[in-house]
Amino acid sequence: MTEAILRQIINYAHRADPYPLYEELRKTPVYHDADGPFVLSRYYDIQSLLHDPRISSDARNLKTPATANPLAAEADDETALPPSFLRLDPPEHDRLRRMTNRPFGPPHSPRRVHEMHGELKDIVSGLIDGIDNPDRIDLVDQFSYPFPVTVICRLLGVPREDEARFHSWADTIAASLDPDPGADTDERAKVSHNARTELGMYLAGLIEERRKKPGADMLSQLSTAGGPDGVMTTMEVLSTAALLLIAGHETTVNLITNGMLTLLRNPDVLERLRKDPNLAVPVVEELLRFEPPVQLVPQRTTLTDIEVRGVTIPKGASLWLVLAAGNRDPDRFEDPDRFDPDRGDIQHLGFGSGIHSCFGAPLARLEAQLALSELARRLENPRLLEDPPPYRQNAVLRGPRHLPIACDGIRP
Ligand code: HEM
């Protein structure tokens, strides 16, 4: 394989279709060149490393400077929040994840996500109702982008009147995760730093209010709920809230946008979904395999020398786990380059696996299922205006920057 493969993956020219490069990469299952990371691309290798306690998520264990991880960018900023649990190892990771899970999922809050169903549906309907010109819709700006951030606001308990401010900070932070070669980097860093600081100050104020007068929202519960692990410090609540916002924003935007793009390229499936909203469940799972919003996990470190397929990866090395390549590994999935929601077995790597597997997965799934089934039902004869659409720069959190579509009208 040529040395250039990693550079090719990062190269924007390949953003619309990186899959032939991943096929090339899989031919060298443990790929390493010069000072670069060790790159893993086979399904079973990735799966097993995600469960391996000799692999760390804590950047402090890296021997060489960390490769930027857009999923974790909140911890790199000098606003100096402590690292969120995404970037910690056990036992700290487990303690914070358990405490965050108390108000979010089973066993203590088994109905939390389910109970958001009606509210999510209303947000989706409101956004579709707001589409004024069916001849040219930008699905990203008009739908996929505003949806997840509104959902996080409702989950955390951000008052309605503050949502617009929250959206604007979230947008600035999300944009800072997408390198823009034409932009003034110092200026961008400053703008993003200011947004993080303002968001942090805003959330700190809200936490203080909720400590005095708790409500039913997640911020109140994170700030006050005591279990066997005690109560989170204000800094821990802040970094956890920032993690929920950042990890759940761009990822969900891309799942919905990749989803609509894939459906428009597979009109038979779109038509079936229009008639049967239950098809959204396997459609979303197959999308997480076929076009995963997190293409690779770029920040893992070996805590000791480990051997994979006869190659020794030394202690302190940086690993890249290319989820999107593993998801199309022919040793795992039959006919992997075909989008097929009817394949019975879709154990994809789209949400990672092991102790760091996506915390927000139940919410992300519900958001995407509702969004895609409602778009399929309500847009009359939808079609793509550009194929491929323009993509964001980001090779890790990969997805279209815009998705221009047209339709004949909006059904009630
Ligand atoms: C389609 C949408 C999403 C995708 C594809 C996605 C993907 C992922 C992946 C691949 C990881 C593992 C990272 C690693 O192993 O280092 C992860 C972790 C995480 N995700 Fe998601 N995510 C999505 C939505 C969300 C949402 C909506 C939330 C919050 C409500 C969220 C919160 C988190 C958190 C907190 C972690 C860290 C878990 C840990 O370290 O224990 N994600 N996500």
Notes on the protein architecture:
It comes from Streptomyces olivochromogenes. Pfam families: p450. This is Cytochrome P450. Keywords: Heme, Iron, Metal-binding, Monooxygenase, Oxidoreductase. With 412 residues, the chain is of the alpha+beta class. The chain has a single domain (5-410), classed as Cytochrome p450, CATH 1.10.630.10. It contains 16 helices and twelve strands. Strand 6 and strand 7 (311-313) form a beta hairpin. The longest helix has 32 residues, at 234-265. The protein is globular. 44% of the residues are buried. Residues 66-76 have low confidence and may be disordered. Residues 57, 71, 85-86, 97, 243-244, 247-248, 251-252, 255, 293-294, 297, 350-352, 356, 358-360, 363-364 line the site of protoporphyrin IX containing FE.
Main sheet summary:
5 strands, mixed
Computed Rg:
21 Å
Order of helices and strands: HHEEHEHHHEHHHHHHHHEEEEHHEEEE
Query: Could you say which small molecules are bound to this protein?
Result: protoporphyrin IX containing FE
> What is the CA–CA distance across the termini?
54 Å
Supply the CATH architecture. Orthogonal Bundle
| Envelope shape | globular
Which strand-content bin applies to the residues? 5-15%
Question: What proportion of the residues is helical, as a percent range?
Answer: 40-55%
Unreliable stretches (pLDDT < 50, length at least 5) are 66-76
Please state the structural category: alpha+beta
How many H/I helical runs? 16
Number of domains: 1
Q: Mean pLDDT score, rounded?
A: 92
At the first level of CATH, the class is: Mainly Alpha
Task: Give me the CATH superfamily.
Answer: Cytochrome P450
